[in-house]
Design brief:
The complex is a heterotrimer of chains A (99), B (275) and C (635). Chain A is mainly alpha-helical. Chain A has three helices and no strands. Chain B: One of its GO terms (molecular function) is NADH dehydrogenase (ubiquinone) activity.
Chain lengths: 99, 275, 635
Amino acid sequence: MTLTYYLVLAAILFTIGAVGVLVRRNAIVVFMCVELMLNSVNLTLVTFARATGTIDGQIMAFFVMVVAAAEVVVGLAIIMSIYRTRRSASVDDANLLKY
Amino acid sequence: MTETLSGGETVVFWVLGPIALAGALGMVLSRNAIHSALWLVNTMLALGVFYVVQEAPFLGAVQIIVYTGAIMILFLFVLMLVGRDSSDSVVETLRGQRVAAIVLGLGFAALVGAGIARATQELTATGLDAVQGEQGNIAAIAESLFTDYLLAFEVTSALLITAAVGAMVLAHIEREPGSRQTQKELSRARFLTSEKPQTLPGPGVFARANSVAVPAILPDGTPSEASLATGIEPETPDQMPRPTGREQLGTPDAALGTLDPAPGGPAAGEWSTDR
Amino acid sequence: MSEVLPAEGLLGASWLLIALPLAGAAVLLLGGRRTDRWGHLLGTATVVAAFVLALLCTFQLAGLEERSADVDLFTFISTGDLDVRAGLLFDPLSAIFALLITGVGSLIHVYSIGYMAHDPARRRFFAYLNLFVAAMLLLVLGNSFVALYVGWEGVGLASYLLIAFWYTRPAAATAAKKAFIMNRVGDVGLALAIFLMFAQLGTTSYAGVFGGVGTLAGGTITAIGLLLLLGACGKSGQFPLQAWLPDAMEGPTPVSALIHAATMVTAGVYLIARSAPIYDLTETARTVVMAIGALTLLIGAIAGCAYDDIKKVLAYSTVSQIGYMFLAVGLGPAGYVAGLAHLLAHGFFKAGLFLGAGSVMHAMNDSVDMRRFGGLWKKLPVTFVTFGLGYLALIGFPFLSGYFTKDAIIEATFDRDDWLGWTTGGIAVLAAGLTAFYMTRLMLMTFFGRARWEEGVHPHESPSVMTAPMVVLAVGSVFSGALLVSIFPLSDWLEPVFGEPEEAAHVIAPATIGIALTVIMLLGVLAAWLFVGRREVPVTAPVRVSPVTRAARNALYADTINESLFMRPGQWLTRALVWVDNRGVDGAVNGLAATLGGSSSRLGRAQTGFVRTYALGMLGGAVLVAGALLAVTAG
């Protein structure tokens, strides 16, 4: 077993998150999928930190977490306000900006 | 160091890896958003353990405390506020979207996985002992964070405060001063305008079960959809004796009701479940 | 041509000649209605002041040894090799024109005060008249062909504005357009001639061109001469561009008198006389000038016999008389002075005749139909006398101005003593008889015979502000010929320009020609008496007439020829081009636009508004990038 396994696992998790973004319509679930993608990237960062023997990867992962936290707060607030005005949390319902 | 990792780690990986994958798949596939959130918690916990195993105990702790603890709870709060609606439906409305997403996802996973496998075949785990030394992981992170990454750290604090303010602004509902209605006005408005001035029936009233998923039975024997919370999939109430109108009662024995469906009313279980 | 010297003294201020009327026009046009009350007085004052200044300048010029003054003003155009200095040339030739323009112009301005008294747009009229005087003075005073061209276009503009002065009348608007467009044809010739001069000689100033023209090839000189002649024909209403001039009579009568009789239409004669050093070198161009002059004077005389519109008759008479002038200047050195003398005399008597016609129209409620005149000599005595003197001068009554100047031209023509001289001279003599015929017809129909006035017409003599200029012009008509030929010979005055007049060897004795012309003139008068004066004039023109009369009434079908030769093919060409433009060019452009628009709207369908669709695109892109990276690293 090598570190490659971690990386491949991270890639698969990322892909699942991406597919989830594409197929789910509930904005909150879509958001969760985005979080999953961020987490898989964090796993990659931690793995590479270990592989290269530097702490910087972990620092990056730390920042990703912080930024994700901020993003979740704002994103959920946006979902809330959209829901209040449109009575829907579906990403397909917000489709007025089109041809 | 070594190319191959220790046996213990291998065991941990092969146990938690499938769990993480299952969590991810479960999140995408489950119909209920709350289930999705719980599946995601599952994956995140597994990843947290991976961090600890991979010489990042601080990040592992943060993952469990902040992600699975704080952020996912926030998700659940919002889910409670928003409730469930048609967006939970698993019917795909965009033609070809699901097929294309899966095909592209498989392609992406294959390409990236192949690329990673090719590039990191001989990847050795150098380990962090040289960097961390005696002081340990947290002190090493702190040292780097407060020296090399100090500016980024400070900027992040600004980002956080901005996000907090932004969330408040977005979630805040502006009301005109004095526009808040009193209880008297509210009840008057309800009685004047609403067709149904009384409170909504609670679930399970006169039903066989007390579950929130069982609709209330109205006096005429029909189930009341209004008694159900949004997002609850109603269960079919069992056959049960139902009270009938006073004029139909006749004898006191008859007042006990029958097992036959009420004359004229819809048969039990006939009412539409797809709302 | 004599050496030009920098101007000194009063001559240095000769630019004021142009500036004064120009300032008047500017004040009147920009001042708007505020200047309505005194605008006509200002307009007249500027022209009178210009006349006084021109007189003073001429006196000073007469005192100079070289009798030529060059006034350098400023750089007009400086680009590449072209360096045009704006400057004035005050020499005897421009002096007589300046005097004619400002003198006759002043009289006509005074006359217009009365004539236009009841017109609400009188201020605008005077503004345009001032503009015309300024442009005409620039035309004759400029010291280069470019300055002349600027003035040339300026008078064209003023002419257009004044013909269309009553622009609410469709006839006036059409006539103005016709005049403008036919003038453009001539102006193209002039412009090409100037281009040719610049291309060949690198300069457009008179001094430079006339100094260097001798070095050019004969063909080039002839080309320049013919192109200049085209310009002159357009401006002067000569064959084949004569058709606009009679129509231009739609303008107010003072305009007809000033622009379309006395001054502007003689600009072509001025151009040819000014370009004498060019024409002296090209026999071919001079022959063409003579032929055109002879042809035009005959056409004008024939057409003049048939019209019943008093102003049109005078207009064709103008065409005919300018034909005499062209004939004269086409003769070369022998004829320049004769042509210019006839020009000056014609300026007097034709302006007087037009003013008289204006006075008659004024009396007859603006009617121009001679068949509804008659017997006016008692009602309009002053007009009758002044008009009659102009008439006698025009038909060449002995010892009046036309007698001297026209005789001189015909003499000079016969003096050539070749087939061209004899032919054109014969035509000129014949046309002199015709002139006597149609002018006598005009006199008889207007002033004599029974009164055929329309209902409600009460003829009355014009106010003195109108008759005074007529009297002055009548006096000029009587004496100018004798003055210019005998007492103060024009040939002496113009000697610095055209050189020493050589004593011509007369083929026919002048006295013989004088007597012969008088006899021909009397025959014309007699014919008119027989055809018109003896009989009752019908109130409507007879319909059953001979083909000759019909042709004359249609001005020898000049308009028809123009239309069928130029207008119709032009229209066909235009239609064809429009068709090609609509179907071919527009089709291609519109097709391209439609293709792009259609494909755009079809591509726009990709913007469904669904975020997930866009995200799918992003994932697809990511797959492509990952695949590309892998392909590159693996390869």
